[in-house]
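In response to reviewer comment 3 from the previous cycle, which asked for concrete evidence that the modeling workflow produces usable outputs, we include below a single protein chain processed end to end. The sequence was submitted unchanged, and the resulting structure tokens are shown without manual editing.
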Amino acid sequence: MSSPDIPSEYTTHMDLALSGGVDMGLDDIRINAIAPITLNSTSALNSTSTLTSTSSLTTTNALSLSVERLPRIALDVTMAMRPTRISFPINMKFGVKSMGMELFCFHVCGESMVIVEDYVARPAELCP
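The workflow returned the following structure tokens.
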């Protein structure tokens, strides 16, 4: 007996074409009436509750507060400047001009100064 000869390649061909449609008429379904729903119950609900409270609060605590010693708070603000000399050099020219011509001129040149120093009473400031 010999073994069967099984081909290794198969060739198939199929043409399938479907057309048309199926309408079962389910688009216009409406419910015209619903049967009434009735609930009947024969159970009874009874409740009897009693709340009693005999709470009381008694305290004999006494609070005593005293301050025996306060801390020393030192607030020392010194508003002073170190001895300082501030200088303002100046150069000013005062004049009268007419039609661009200088008629009269007064010229001041120098230095203005502010001196900050420790206060020492001068003889003219002492009260008699």
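The chain has a mean pLDDT of 80. We consider this sufficient to address the reviewer's concern, and the full set will be provided in the supplementary archive.
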